[in-house]
Amino acid sequence: MTQPKLGVLALQGAFREHRQRLEALGVTVKEVRLPADLHGLSGLILPGGESTTMARLMTDYALWRPVRDFYSRGGAIWGTCAGAILLARDIQGAPPQFGVQDSLSLMDIRVRRNAFGRQVDSFTAPLTVTGLKNPFPAVFIRAPVIESVGEGVEPLAQHEGQVVLARQGRLMASSFHPELTPDPRLHELFLALVDQTVLTGV
């Protein structure tokens, strides 16, 4: 079977680190900046960064509908930190000057921006993750929290009683930055999700 090709949204944020993690696993990676870049992909990562800036750039580059269409055609998507905000159907805590923040509205979760504090409050914590044998070293930087999940959303990890990693079908969302640790296991978890999607023809 041909190995799936993955894309990383490369408008802003930690997309290079995601690319490096995937390439270290032998994955072919394409940086996505335009709708045409989605062609031929099986999975897409929305990286951490600044969610309002990323949302504005997605509007500027006309990416909202193509990314939704990519998902509708069977693509898998993983949003990390700001990327998780872009996936959510309900976003809390956006600055008043931005009004209602744009999102893909694909994942049935409610997230709250910057729930773990400012940049100076960044920290690393070991997480017990469903499907992983040992704790994962999660890096939290101005991280959102998943305040609630809808039916069909499976929480995979919590920090101090709050959901920080969840999965819904072909979607994953993490509050933290797995690309900032050398531990590849969450990227492998997403690859397994992509492989399952390809095999089932969803």
TrEMBL record:
<keyword id="KW-0378">Hydrolase</keyword>
<feature type="active site" description="Nucleophile">
    <location>
        <position position="81"/>
    </location>
</feature>
<feature type="binding site">
    <location>
        <position position="113"/>
    </location>
    <ligand>
        <name>L-glutamine</name>
    </ligand>
</feature>
<dbReference type="Pfam" id="PF01174">
    <property type="entry name" value="SNO"/>
</dbReference>
<keyword id="KW-0315">Glutamine amidotransferase</keyword>
<dbReference type="InterPro" id="IPR002161">
    <property type="entry name" value="PdxT/SNO"/>
</dbReference>
<keyword id="KW-0456">Lyase</keyword>
<comment type="function">
    <text>Catalyzes the hydrolysis of glutamine to glutamate and ammonia as part of the biosynthesis of pyridoxal 5'-phosphate. The resulting ammonia molecule is channeled to the active site of PdxS.</text>
</comment>
<feature type="active site" description="Charge relay system">
    <location>
        <position position="179"/>
    </location>
</feature>
<feature type="binding site">
    <location>
        <begin position="141"/>
        <end position="142"/>
    </location>
    <ligand>
        <name>L-glutamine</name>
    </ligand>
</feature>
<protein>
    <recommendedName>
        <fullName>Pyridoxal 5'-phosphate synthase subunit PdxT</fullName>
        <ecNumber>4.3.3.6</ecNumber>
        <ecNumber>3.5.1.2</ecNumber>
    </recommendedName>
</protein>
<comment type="pathway">
    <text>Cofactor biosynthesis; pyridoxal 5'-phosphate biosynthesis.</text>
</comment>
<dbReference type="GO" id="GO:0036381">
    <property type="term" value="F:pyridoxal 5'-phosphate synthase (glutamine hydrolysing) activity"/>
</dbReference>
<feature type="binding site">
    <location>
        <begin position="49"/>
        <end position="51"/>
    </location>
    <ligand>
        <name>L-glutamine</name>
    </ligand>
</feature>
<feature type="active site" description="Charge relay system">
    <location>
        <position position="177"/>
    </location>
</feature>
<comment type="subunit">
    <text>In the presence of PdxS, forms a dodecamer of heterodimers. Only shows activity in the heterodimer.</text>
</comment>
<dbReference type="InterPro" id="IPR021196">
    <property type="entry name" value="PdxT/SNO_CS"/>
</dbReference>
<dbReference type="InterPro" id="IPR029062">
    <property type="entry name" value="Class_I_gatase-like"/>
</dbReference>
<dbReference type="GO" id="GO:0004359">
    <property type="term" value="F:glutaminase activity"/>
</dbReference>
<keyword id="KW-0663">Pyridoxal phosphate</keyword>
<comment type="similarity">
    <text>Belongs to the glutaminase PdxT/SNO family.</text>
</comment>
